[in-house]
From TrEMBL:
Protein name: N-succinylornithine carbamoyltransferase
Gene Ontology annotations of biological process type: citrulline biosynthetic process; L-arginine biosynthetic process via ornithine
PANTHER family named in the record: ORNITHINE CARBAMOYLTRANSFERASE, MITOCHONDRIAL, ORNITHINE TRANSCARBAMYLASE, MITOCHONDRIAL
Family: Belongs to the aspartate/ornithine carbamoyltransferase superfamily. SOTCase family.
Superkingdom: Bacteria
Length: 312
């Protein structure tokens, strides 16, 4: 595997999940694999889990780690070809990616959607720019349209908690005061399509995700009906895709409650707005898997880095 840009870069999801669960039992067993290898984590946006879990995963593998808040500390990058750079940008992605490749063996990038221009976001300028011009493997730590490390952690969490071979999993939209990207929901849907489950997506009309991603998925606009007999409920806000980046609804009737959850396990990638996205009673109750999901971020990153290190 050259890069990890999408959950579809996983060649065998059940195999990777089993391997990650085994790594969890003995995280330091591949310490020698990363000896004298360096990973550089470049953040164009904020993070808690991704930053610490990816760093921890690399340390488990014996790697050196360099972290840079590129968004606030780096030069403003130019992505277009042939630009006369006499305005706000200071360095071209071509040089930046090639230079970063001199200092490390793997580079991991976080660069969110701007939610202003769908075409520009879908072009994944930052992630694809690094993948194109770097001479080293690139790992996606959440880009404009995908968060594959989160989706892999979610697959691990589902596997650890499933009690039947074909559980019912519901992805439910929830309200949020701000416009959020589609990356987490997109990668969760793509991950669910890689496995055998009864999968339903529920959201208000106008919140349909990219139809290319949700092709062949069941969409139920009635949340109550969607949640019937659910084993896992994954809650996430995203802004409208059709009316790109717009907040069309803040309807608290979509907030996840204990009553609606029933006997299902609750999942969310975090960070989460309490009593907007989900009520306290769910997060503080014993059906919540959110902290386990966060813990599994270390092992999703570790299995990805291990697979890459094995090719270097
Ligand atoms: N879930 C997730 O990616 O968390 P952070 O944004 O804190 O990294």
């Amino acid at each position: 595997m050259k890069h990890y840009l999408s959950i579809n870069d996983v060649d065998c999801l059940p195999g990777w999940v089993d391997e990650a669960i085994a790594l969890k039992q003995n995280p330091y067993q591949f310490q020698k694999l990363g000896k004298h290898k360096t990973i550089c984590l470049l953040f164009f946006n904020n993070s808690l889990r991704t930053r610490l879990s990816t760093q921890k995963a690399a340390m488990h593998l014996g790697m050196e780690v360099m972290v840079m808040n590129f968004g606030s500390e780096g030069w403003v990058l130019e992505y277009e070809d042939g630009t006369i750079m006499d305005q706000g940008t200071s360095e071209h992605i071509k040089e930046a990616a090639k230079v970063v490749s001199q200092y490390c063996d793997i580079v991991a990038i976080r660069a969110f959607a701007q939610l202003k221009d769908k075409e520009k976001d879908e072009a994944e300028q930052v992630l694809n720019g690094f993948a194109k011009f770097a001479s080293i493997p690139v790992v996606n730590m959440e880009s404009s349209i995908a968060h594959p490390l989160q989706a892999l952690a979610d697959a691990i969490t589902l596997k650890e908690h499933e009690t039947k071979s074909r559980p019912k999993v519901v992805l439910s939209w929830a309200p949020h005061p701000k416009a959020l990207p589609h990356a987490v929901a997109n990668s969760f849907v793509e991950m669910m399509k890689l496995q055998e489950t009864d999968f339903v997506i529920t959201h208000p009309k106008g919140y349909e995700l990219n139809p290319e991603i949700t092709a062949r998925c069941t969409i139920e606009y009635n949340q109550q009906k969607a949640l019937e007999n659910a084993d896992f409920v994954y809650v996430k806000n995203w802004s409208s895709y059709i009316n790109y980046g717009q907040v069309l609804s803040k309807d608290l009737a979509w907030t996840m409650t204990r009553e609606k959850l029933g006997n299902a396990k609750f999942m969310h990638c975090l960070p989460v707005r309490r009593n907007v996205v989900v009520e306290d009673a769910v997060l503080d109750g014993n059906q919540s898997l959110v902290v386990e999901q966060a813990n599994n971020r270390t092992f999703s990153a570790q299995i990805v880095l291990k697979k890459i290190l094995e090719t270097l």
